């Protein structure tokens, strides 16, 4: 097993969650499977693409519908097509179980996963946002408008900085995950060829690979995975790093999150309460942060006006 910090030398990196390495891998396959948002933005689904993979780029913090993807992967493999399958560790383990044997023309890439949030929570959130801002037509869960570390949600053209979005706060506080995510067996038994993650801590491990716009953590787990990485090396800036150093700030690679004591109550409330209630109870910092930011702006404006007034007096 080898571990790398990597950045794709391509402008698609700007539209990717971190270093854009998924796109670098995908261009070497005839068929790519990955997760895209549904047209109405109310969910996510696994789709099959042969050319344009743009809808597969970026994180989707949702439970994706797999549909008949496993069956279609097998058909593609039996027809001799080269296939890249990307998804969570549990989806890849599920695919491997369905296939029943290894295929030389299949590469599986998993994304290091924090956990899968409730589809119902996302739907209620979208309804809540649409009542205020109109129809949601596109969403980016990891927009890098400010910088990679201070990512935010981008809904249509409206950017919501990290820490100010209630859905993200509930997700990152682990209230809304599937029961299996609190004891994820896929973290102990990985069947992927390559794992991709955000390289949190890159400024400490390989500072020369950090420009503030995102670096991918690449963990190569099989010989097939290494062959693929070697094939795309010339298309990326990369550096081999120590595995333990690389995952120190990304515990999702090796352990599940702890189940909050309020998790069951959270879902009871989700069924019976308004989304405003959910925000007040489970994401109170969202409003508190907004108030703090507003107050900071007011103080800054007052300070500026005060300086102008004093300056004006001195000029007289």
Short description:
The protein has 316 residues and is of the alpha/beta class. It has eleven helices and twelve strands.
Give the C-alpha Rg: 22 Å
What do the pLDDT scores average to? 89
Strand content: 15-25%
Give the N-to-C terminal Cα separation: 73 Å
Report the sheet with the most strands, covering strand number, pairing sense and barrel closure: 9 strands, mixed
Strand ordering within the main sheet: 4-3-2-5-6-10-11-1-12
Give the % helix. 25-40%
Structural class: alpha/beta
SS element count, helices: 11
Detailed description of the structure:
This protein is of the alpha/beta class. The protein is built from eleven helices and twelve strands. Strands 4-3-2-5-6-10-11-1-12 form a nine-stranded mixed β-sheet, with helices on both faces. A three-stranded antiparallel β-sheet has the order 7-8-9, with no helix packed on it. The longest helix has 32 residues. The C terminus is likely disordered.
Highlighted features:
37% helix; globular; 9-stranded mixed beta sheet; alpha/beta; 316 residues
Helix and strand arrangement:
Layout: E1 2-8, H1 21-26, E2 31-37, E3 44-49, E4 64-65, H2 69-78, E5 83-87, H3 89-99, E6 106-111, H4 119-133, E7 139-143, E8 152-155, E9 158-161, H5 166-172, E10 194-198, H6 202-205, E11 216-220, H7 223-232, E12 236-241, H8 243-247, H9 263-272, H10 275-282, H11 284-315
Parallel strand pairs: 2-5, 3-4, 5-6, 6-10
Antiparallel strand pairs: 1-11, 1-12, 2-3, 7-8, 8-9, 10-11
């Amino acid at each position: 097993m080898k571990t790398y910090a990597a950045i794709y030398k391509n402008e698609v990196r700007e539209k990717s969650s971190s270093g854009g390495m998924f796109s670098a891998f995908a261009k070497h396959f005839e068929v790519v499977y990955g997760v895209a948002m549904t047209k109405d933005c109310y969910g996510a689904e696994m789709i099959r693409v042969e050319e344009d993979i743009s809808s597969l780029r970026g994180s989707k913090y949702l439970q994706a519908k797999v549909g008949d993807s496993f069956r279609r992967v097998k058909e593609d493999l039996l027809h001799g097509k080269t296939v890249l399958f990307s998804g969570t560790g549990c989806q890849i383990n599920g695919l491997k179980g369905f296939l029943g044997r290894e295929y030389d023309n299949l590469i599986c890439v998993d994304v290091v996963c924090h956990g899968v949030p409730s589809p119902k929570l996302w739907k209620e959130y979208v309804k809540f946002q649409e009542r205020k801002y109109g129809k949601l037509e596109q969403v980016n869960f990891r927009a890098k408008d400010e910088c990679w570390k201070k990512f935010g949600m981008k809904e249509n053209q409206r950017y919501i900085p990290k820490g100010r979005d209630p859905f993200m706060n509930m997700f990152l506080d682990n209230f809304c995950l599937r029961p299996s995510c609190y004891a994820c067996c896929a973290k102990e038994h990985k069947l992927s060829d390559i794992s991709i993650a955000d390289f949190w801590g890159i400024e400490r491990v390989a500072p020369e690979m950090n420009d503030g716009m995102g670096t991918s953590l690449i963990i190569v787990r099989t010989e097939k995975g290494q062959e693929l990485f070697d094939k795309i090396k010339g298309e990326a800036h990369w550096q081999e790093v120590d595995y333990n150093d690389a995952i120190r700030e990304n515990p999702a690679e090796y352990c599940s999150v702890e189940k909050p004591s309020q998790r069951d109550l959270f879902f009871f409330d989700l069924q019976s309460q308004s989304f405003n209630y959910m925000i007040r109870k489970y994401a109170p910092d969202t409003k508190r942060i907004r108030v703090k930011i507003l107050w900071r702006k007011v103080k800054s404006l007052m300070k500026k006006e005060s300086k102008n007034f004093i300056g004006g007096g001195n000029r007289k």
